[in-house]
Amino acid sequence: MYNTLVSAGFPSSKRFLIDTSLLRFVKGYELRQVLLALGVALVLNDLALVVWGGDTFTVPVPGPLQGPLRLGAIAYPRYRLFVLAVGLLLFAGLWLLLHRTRLGALIRAGVDDLEMVDAMGVDIKRVFIYTFMLGSALAGLGGTLGGAFLSLYPSADVEILVFSLAVVIIGGRGSLVGAGVGSLLVGMLATFGQVWFPELAYFVIFGPMAVLLAFRPLGLFGRAT
Questions:
Q1: What's the pTM value of the predicted model, to 2 decimals?
Q2: Is the pLDDT of residue 16 over 70?
Q3: How far is CA 27 from the centre of its chain?
Q4: Domain ends where: 126, 154, 182?
Q5: Most exposed of 58, 110, 164, 173 (fewest Cβ within 10 Å)?
Q6: Spatial contact of 45 and 155, defined as CB atoms under 8 Å apart
Q7: Residues 50 and 142 reside in one and the same domain
């Protein structure tokens, strides 16, 4: 949902309106939130196709980040190392935000007991709106960074959404550490699956996920609300 909003050119004010005018009516109902988000995503996909067309687009790589970085006999693309470094910094920043700041404490408390936090005089709805907008901004940043080595085209967000779903299910909903571990597992499964079993690339990801859910329905790091 975040990726679609950003890729469709929606500024923060528009994403704010979507959260306050649509998503607020389904807060607390996860299935309804998913269905509403998918519906909005489909509409935005068609609008983006009408406005910008269906041409493939690639974000240019900055000059200093082009080419490989050689360490002895090992060579690796500089830009991918840059993306890895940015991802680690963002992960550390989000962890500090959630666990070492007052805003993070409000977010975690609002998820666990929204009514109690609201009764204490905290405008938790505004906090959640800001959280929604932060997630949208991070999704836009991810799309910009990834667009330099992944071609951007209509329905590309649906392919990313499949992997995102696997990451959340494997790592566990509501866990930042689970998202990090789940993304590493899904990334390795997708990469090795396409090399070893190209005709079963999706099964390599969702097969282990189904086995995991049989023993840990909440994922590796998920917890019951």
A1: 0.77
A2: no
A3: 19
A4: 154
A5: 58
A6: yes
A7: yes
